[in-house]
Structure formats: structure tokens, C-alpha cells
Amino acid sequence: MDTRFDLVCFSHLRWDFVFQRPHHLLTRFARTGRVFFVEEPLPLPAGESTSRLDVLPRGESLTVLVPRLPALGNSLLSEVATRRLLDEYFAQVDLEEYVLWYYTPMAVGVSRHFSPLATIYDCMDELSAFRGAPPDLLVREAELFRRADLVFTGGQSLYRSKRAKHPSVHLFPSSVDSEHFAQARTVQVEPEDQKGIPGPRLGFFGVLDERLDAELLAGIADLRPDWHCVLIGPTVKIEPDSLPRRPNIHYLGSKAYADLPRYLAGWDVALIPFARNEATRFISPTKTPEYLAAGRPVVSTSIRDVVQPYGTEGLVRIADRPVDFVAAVEAALAEDSAARLRQSDQFLRGISWDRTWAAMHSLVRELVDARVAEMSARSVLAV
């Protein structure tokens, strides 16, 4: 049996924000079915008072849906308005056979009445540990666990945390598009906003938020003023003034996913300078294999899902204090790059987003086919 089905995804992330796990997975699904990516509501522009659904095509089969509401203060009213907008839209596009795919448990409130072929919870972060998390998030997550047919987790720590909460939890850690990031090994032309920064360059890309260890970054810059730290990404949930300011720290802002290899090509060492706090306790940074695919040596703080497997395999150096981090960077700068590349390339051969999606899709396909067969049998018996 090969039932064709669509996918409705509910996400706390904005599609046009930063290219992350949902983008890698859902763009692959869009090759075989329609994807509707439902974002959290945004307020209407000033002067507008009628709720609407913004429909934003992001590919031949992928559509981003953004509810625009006059007021977001009352969560119950927002859910009712969002539910109405989605029901009207999905009736127009003949959504019939579909799978629900969640990144945020908070969307349960607008989708309880849906009748999917299957419900998937792809848990990529412990959202309850993030700054500004909704107070009832864990209650909603418990409901999502009851509704979900499959639960996927984005890292080993998350898997250990969630596996006792559902009978079918599957580990799918951060993967990589090695071909994309390997471009960094052959790039010749520097980006304009980076080429004037002296070397050695230590680089980081990602969201700048409460996970970044600002004190560590400042300490590295102070200990080695001849090194230059390059940080790429948007600043979210923290005040920009809370980021350390030094002559040798350079904030270049957000860059397109397609352009990241050009920046990586100019870095001598790639960094994962995350603080060790509640927000980082369960994370599995996707940037780790991406840095390695780009051919960069990597130094990280002791984030559990970086230590295991990357630290224990000798692929990433681990340090937490500024003086130790500096020593680790010095060792990375002096290492045999050919030996490092052979080792990291061997490790990366076993992981890719294509493989991850194929394994996920196989589980979903098996579930959908069984559900359709069950419904067909009931239909025959009812005749």
C-alpha cells in the first residue's frame, strides 16, 4: 500500500528565521506530498481589525501559514480564532488524508479536533527550559504524548528524558548536509563583511540567546586579543547590550543558509561557546557535524550531546573555562589537519539528513498504511 498523504506541521519556529531541523526534514517531505507549515499567531498591523491567515508559498509543495489576529492577550480567544482560520483554509485546499507533525505542544489547543492518519511529535528541544516558555507547556506536552503515535527526539539527552513518557520514542540526532558544508573547503572568495577581519579567526553561527556563554566569549577575547571572534546569527530573547563588546569580537548578523560555507571557509577554528544551564541541558547542536563537514577544527563547552559522541571520539575538543578554552584552540590551530579531516569524514559518512528523513518516513509510512488498511477493513464490514 502506498497512500499519498499531506503533512500539517505546527511549529514555534518561523520558517524564514534560521534554517534548522524542520527545514531539512520538511523540504524533503515536500518532494512527495504537500506541507503546510503553521506558525504561531502574529498581531495584525496597526489599523487592521479583522483576523486573517497569511498564506506564503515557500516552494512548489510547501506553504507557510501565519494567523494574524487583532489581539494575542487572551490565549483561549486566540486559539478559537486560529482554529477557525485553519479550518476555513484547509477546507479550501481539500485537505483530507494527512499527518500532523508537531514541534510545539502549545499547538494542541488549535488542533484537537483534527482527524489525521497519524500524529508525530518531533521533539527537537526541551522548550520548557527556555526563557519565556509558556507556563502550561508541560501540561500541553503531556497531552501531546497521549495523542502522538510516534515521538522523535533530536538528541541523546532528549531521548533519555522522553523515552519513558511514550511507548514509541525514537532517537534521531542532529544530522548534516555534508555536501553543502564541504563547499567551505574550496571557497576562494571571502564575504565582504568578513574579509577585513584579521586572523586567526574563531567563528560561531547560530542564534545568539541565553544559551551563549557571554563571560566565556569575553574571557577568550581578553586572553588573546590577537585572535578575532566572528559571530553570525540573530540576537533573540536577550538584550544586545548583554553581549560582550571587544575590538576583536565581531557580530555580523544573520546570514542565509546558502552563504554559511563562505564564512566558514575563512575561520581557523569553529566554536560552540554555550553556557551550561537549563536551556542547554538537552540540546544537540546541529552545527557540530556542520562544522566538521566544513573541515574546521571545533572547540566546544561540555554540552552533553557534544561530549558524547564528538568529544569521546576525538572529533571535538572540550573546554569550559576561558584559559582551558584558549589552550584547546591553540591545540586545534597546531594540529595535523589532514589526519583530522580523515577522521571526521569517516564519522560523517554514517549520517545525513537524507538518511534521517528516510528512516523517519519509513516509520510514518508503516503507521499510515496500517491505519488506512484498518479504515478500509471497517468500511467493508460496515457495508
Give an overview in words.
- By secondary structure, this protein is of the alpha/beta class.
- Helix 6 crosses helix 10.
- The relative contact order is 0.12.
SSE layout:
Layout: E1 6-10, H1 21-29, E2 35-38, E3 42-43, E4 52-57, E5 62-69, H2 75-92, E6 98-102, E7 118-123, H3 137-147, E8 150-153, H4 156-162, E9 169-171, H5 178-181, E10 201-205, H6 214-223, E11 228-232, E12 249-253, H7 260-264, E13 269-272, H8 287-293, E14 298-300, H9 304-311, E15 317-318, H10 322-334, H11 337-348, H12 353-382
Parallel strand pairs: 1-2, 1-6, 2-5, 3-5, 6-7, 7-8, 8-9, 10-11, 10-13, 11-12, 13-14, 14-15
Antiparallel strand pairs: 4-5
Q: What labels describe this entry?
A:
Rossmann fold, 2 domains, single chain, 9-stranded mixed sheet, 15 strands, alpha/beta, 6-stranded parallel sheet, 12 helices, 383 residues
